[in-house]
Amino acid sequence: MFIKKKFKKYLLGEKDIPTAWYNIQPDLPTPLQPSLNPGTGKPLVPEDLAPIFPMELIKQEMSQERWIDIPGEVIDIYKMWRPSPLFRAYELEKVLDTPAKIYYKYEGVSPAGSHKPNTAVPQAYYNKKEGVKKLTTETGAGQWGSSLSLAGSLFGLEVEVYMVKVSYNQKPYRKMMMQTWGGKVFSSPSNNTEYGRKCIAEDPNTPGSLGMAITEAVEVAAKDPNAKYALGSVLNHVCTHQTIIGIEAKKQMEMAGDYPDVVVACHGGGSNFAGIAFPFAQDKIKKGKKVRLVAVEPAACPTLTKGQFAYDFGDTGMMTPLMAMYTLGHRFVPAGIHSGGLRYHGAAPLVSAVMKDKLMEAVAYEQNQCFAAGMTFARCEGIIPAPESTHAIKGAVEEALDAKKKGEKRVILFNLSGHGDFDLAAYDDYLAGRLKDSTLQNTAIEEGLKSLPNIK
Amino acid sequence: MFIKKKFKKYLLGEKDIPTAWYNIQPDLPTPLQPSLNPGTGKPLVPEDLAPIFPMELIKQEMSQERWIDIPGEVIDIYKMWRPSPLFRAYELEKVLDTPAKIYYKYEGVSPAGSHKPNTAVPQAYYNKKEGVKKLTTETGAGQWGSSLSLAGSLFGLEVEVYMVKVSYNQKPYRKMMMQTWGGKVFSSPSNNTEYGRKCIAEDPNTPGSLGMAITEAVEVAAKDPNAKYALGSVLNHVCTHQTIIGIEAKKQMEMAGDYPDVVVACHGGGSNFAGIAFPFAQDKIKKGKKVRLVAVEPAACPTLTKGQFAYDFGDTGMMTPLMAMYTLGHRFVPAGIHSGGLRYHGAAPLVSAVMKDKLMEAVAYEQNQCFAAGMTFARCEGIIPAPESTHAIKGAVEEALDAKKKGEKRVILFNLSGHGDFDLAAYDDYLAGRLKDSTLQNTAIEEGLKSLPNIK
User: Fold this and answer.
1) Where are the domains of chain A?
2) So what's the ipTM on this one?
3) pLDDT tens readout for residues B76-102
4) What does each C-alpha distance from B407 to A220, A270, B399, B412 come to in angstroms?
5) Which of residues 426-455 of A touch B (CB under 8 A)?
């Protein structure tokens, strides 16, 4: 018997690329709690951030403007891969035998393979415009480092990436990608920095950590007047840049003649969730729309579902400002799951504020469940998703099955934040039954939360 | 100083997906010489191919119809990634400081990352329709094997891939990709077949070869009444399926308000060259258009530039029909360059006929030259090209520089057949100066040509 397959994408033209990002700050029901200078305990002022960020990004970080114009120069580069397509997942619906409609926005079409260039490009742009010559950053598995290397190559900026040693050795492909785009990649801890040399002296065999790599990248930027630092998630301006995803998706849902009952995205630092969800959160806040917003996190790092809303550091080394956010404590070390991008102890302050105001929900799933959903998706829809994105798929699948149970024609939209071409070893582990589920105990969470600084 | 960057893509809608493939056979100035049954020496009849191909593909192989309807079921699946974008390479033009305009058609947007699914999908479709349960094929680096695995997963066909042993061990990612889509991958030579067991008995440490893998895949298909064999290049129907690239590109060039003076593509077996070039060859033959068609091959495997037009076998084991084509001799073994997809001793009979009728040209470049061009391209345009595709880029760059020398506003169109995300080790080798250029001697070519069968 011959089975007919159905694929459908909703495409926008280049002229439909949004001309402004959406900043949710002025629309938040409860005003955002300011980040604090860890030295003085007082709210951050622009000068605190000036050594490591360009002024325009600092302004955006603190802006109360609802719409932030996207510079023409940035739109011109967005044209390389944007607008990204919105797909209706007919085949997945069929396999789940659900009355729900499933749509997904696909951000894996960027040259780096994920949503990260959406913010890497404007960050490189503003730095270049303010005369910066070099950007430094950290990277784990390499998604962010390669996105910034790409952006740097486009603007003629030097990019220096501190890549966690264990990933540097185990994941050579992302490193090669960064180098192909001209990025300089160092295994962290390195001999380039005081902090790196200290870490090596303490333990020559240290596997490194994101915490160490952040400190190295910040140290280099702070000491070099021609260099600044760039971060790929968590911060307000990063979440704002990513809203281009949701703004496009709203137009495309309109083309499809639907409006989502629920918007789903995976959650690590928060930028891809914010990117697709905030434009719909605006509808919820301003127009009273009933759309639900669901963040899906790994059971191994349940920041939103089991963390605490508190002031905490963004890094392990306690160098960053204190941010009001959901956190598992800056000393919490998540297990080594394949979704490297979701292994973060905190959540973006903007996402945390939306969560605290009960405008969104969060759920957590084990990685084997997520890979099972990702495998089903790959065989139905043809795209092999990034491990991080399988969490969004799992969330969407659960919504579709719940709709089936309740006989509802639920409209589900999820963000497929990236492809898994560089993560096939994880699928190999899954197929071979080698993937471990989290054995996270409440005691480990309690232990992590003990590291919270004593600030009300 | 701030440098403004420019990117532009020409997008077609789903409704613009072509509804017929272009078959160049009836338009060839000199009729195609028939392939021969190696046993009888007589022209092939459909029955000769029936054990290994479905009847509809055999019909297409021999068809004199100019347009072959694309089944609706195939168009529905093409919608997964087609129409593919056409880009104007403004940044590359700027770096080359050329008055030429450079356009490229990008086929790396398919889930498998190259143009191969354009034919994998219809091949799987026709097999499924004729009741076939299993497809067998060979693969080198894995581009074709993963495309067929994807197509098989979409139609519920079992796919069995014989992957050259040395690649099976060295390139695990493509293997994992095939498995994620449900393909069964065997290291070739394997114990599954008589021929494989014979090869292993003769040399337990053999690295395998494409020749051996073809023989294994054909043997399995020939012996199993529920199985057929699928080939990813060379054959007429494969070239015909790929013309969807050029048909779309023509519409997109029209949108851009240009018509190419020259069309460039890399050349291995011939399918991606045929795909973009044949629709323009039709304009040349039927409308007297002056467009030049340039195939770019590796200096290590100069089939069109140094081969001979003769009847030869498609495989090393002398199992296939005899085809009239440019060939270096079926015993010619090209050096192990990174462009695995261009390491083929022959050329598609259709491309060979177009070449013999002087409707096209061919050039050959060394791999270091090609990677240099690919690196420039990646840093200008953001996409990291497959090693095979860097040959097309090198060809286009040479055309642009020649136009500059002559002060011509030449319009150049090339086919970027795939991305290089799985080939980053090759870029790493290039950056480290480890890539070797070909040391191919004329004596090696003469030696290869001695293996030509004695047929006029």
Assistant:
1) 72-113+241-449
2) 0.90
3) 999 999 999 999 999 999 999 999 999
4) 47, 52, 12, 14
5) 427-428, 431
